[in-house]
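Give me structure tokens for this 81-residue protein.
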Amino acid sequence: MTLAHDGRTVVGLVEYPELSCSGVLNNAQLVGDALTIQEEITKNGGCLKFVDLTLALAPGRIDYSFNQMYTGSGRLTRPGT
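Here you go.
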């Protein structure tokens, strides 16, 4: 996952190599201490086309979750940390 601010909102890219999926991140909104962002899969090997993600910033990490057709969560860290 790569995130950037384009001057108006947060946008980015996402890639799931083990699932042969990748896509874009758009429509970010800050809700409390969490960023909600829509994932749109553009190269699909078996992923849901649209998923609303919640990213909660914590010291040294980002907690990641979604709850749509399936529920999932995880923890994102930078390589080497």
